[in-house]
Amino acid sequence: MAQTEEQMYEVIETKSNFEIRYYPPVMMAAYDSQGDSSSGFRSLFRYISGSNMSATKIAMTTPVHMEKQEYGNTMAFVLPKKFDSETAPQPKETQVRVYEAAGGYYASFRYSGYTNPSKEKKYTAILIRSLKEEGIETAGPAKVFVYDAPYSFINRRNEISIPIVWEP
User: Fold this and answer.
1) C-alpha distances in angstroms, 17 versus 8, 82, 126, 134?
2) CATH code, 1-24+103-168
3) Tens of pLDDT along 97-118?
4) Which of 162, 156, 158, 164 is nearest to 119 (CA)?
């Protein structure tokens, strides 16, 4: 079985129930939706399957990033590290956007099983409370990182990651 490329990060510090990480800049393909997140997954999957301007097939990577806000949801795939702003294929679908995500510091809380809104809310609250206790300021909304395919049943890995203000 082929190894799936994972988004790179450096663990800066390990706290009692979360890690502080530095994520370098990375190319992403994202889909913003007002409701059904499955339409985002389908569009992003078509993009990496070759439905892009250069008909390039792109390997799946992990994690899948999901961000839920009042106005809608964003799902994003990390592109393999061989791509940059010049070489990343441009999407055919106007709803898919390709961009370079800035690097930054994040607090990440890991949990297992299948993710769902209830778990995401619970673990986001735990992480925010832990950050307050540590005196660490947040710098943006929480994201859910999903590392496993839906058909993987055991040892599933999910994370709540929140951008933070961090001075090394």
Assistant:
1) 21, 33, 9, 11
2) 3.30.200
3) 999 999 999 999 999 999 999 9
4) 158
CATH class of 26-100: alpha beta
Non-local CB neighbours of 111 within 8 Å, separated by 6+ positions: 119, 123, 158, 159, 160
- Phi, psi dihedrals of residue 131, rounded to the nearest 5°: -65, -40
Question: What is d(CA 23, CA 163) in angstroms, rounded to the nearest whole number?
Answer: 10
Mean model confidence pLDDT for the chain: 92
pTM of the predicted structure, to 2 decimals = 0.90
Cβ atoms of 72 and 40 within 8 Å: the answer is: no
Is 61 within 8 Å of 24 (Cβ atoms)? no
The two three-digit tokens of residue 126, written as one number = 């735990």
**Domains of the chain: which residue ranges?**
1-24+103-168, 26-100
Look up residue 140 and give its two tokens. 């943006």
The whole-angstrom separation of Cα 13 and Cα 154 is: 28
Helices and strands: H and E segment counts in the chain: 2, 11
Pairing type for strands 61-62 and 5-6 reads parallel
> Each residue of 43-74: pLDDT tens digit?
999 999 999 999 999 999 999 999 987 778 89
